[in-house]
Amino acid sequence: MTPQSQPDLRIGRVLKAHGVKGALRVALLTDFPDRFAPGRQIDIADRRLTVAQSEEQDGSLLVTFDGIDDRSTAERLVGLYCTLPLAEARPLPADRYYHFQLVGLTVVDRRSARTIGRVAEVLEYDANDVLRVTDGDREVLIPMVRSVVRAITPEEGTISVELPEETEA
């Protein structure tokens, strides 16, 4: 994905079908769970669906959509992302960024003033996100923690980092 492309905003991922009436277990990928409130519209695989019901359960959401009435229809959605058009992205607080805003930025090590590469993707882990930075055939994984990522300036197209000295980047 390039910074110029207009990706959809991923707000959830369908984990599995639940029961026989078309309910889905959805992992939240948004800080705004109200996006799954009844009546809201969400895209899954280029199909606009309306949320009929949702409830938080065991760290995820149990969601039913209008028109998804049986398990076999629900199972076809497993593994797919729940998305919204990018135009519906909500403003984030200062120093918070959507992943798509980081992809394509140049990563520079402050200590050596050396360019490490460009962000290819942002990997999500429980402890913290990780930047996958590439430069040709070389790849470096950089944890998104304050002690390493020192400044993000999308308007300049850069991320400044201070890598631990033992890191080979």
CATH superfamily of the largest domain: RimM
Strand order of the largest sheet: 1-2-5-4-3-6
Number of strands: 12
According to CATH, what is the topology of the largest domain?
A: Elongation Factor Tu (Ef-tu), domain 3
Structural domain tally: 2
Instruction: Provide a count of the helices.
Output: 2
CATH architecture of the largest domain: Beta Barrel
What CATH first level of the largest domain would be assigned?
Mainly Beta
**CA-based shape:** elongated
Low-confidence stretches: 1-5
Q: How large is the radius of gyration?
A: 19 Å
The end-to-end span amounts to: 23 Å
Order of helices and strands: EEEEEHEHEEEEEE
State the helical fraction: under 10%
Residue fraction in strands: 35-45%
Mean pLDDT equals 90
Structural class of the secondary structure composition? mainly beta
Could you explain how this protein is built, in words?
The chain has 169 residues and is mostly beta strands. It has two domains: 9-88, Elongation Factor Tu (Ef-tu), domain 3, CATH 2.40.30; 99-161, Roll (SH3 type barrels). It has two helices and twelve strands; from the N terminus they run E-E-E-E-E-H-E-H-E-E-E-E-E-E. The strands form two sheets. Strands 1-2-5-4-3-6 form a six-stranded antiparallel beta barrel. The longest helix has 5 residues, at 71-75. It is elongated and about 60 Å long. Mean pLDDT is 90; it is low at 1-5.
How would you concisely characterize the structure shown here?
The chain is mostly beta strands and 169 residues long. It has a six-stranded antiparallel β-barrel.
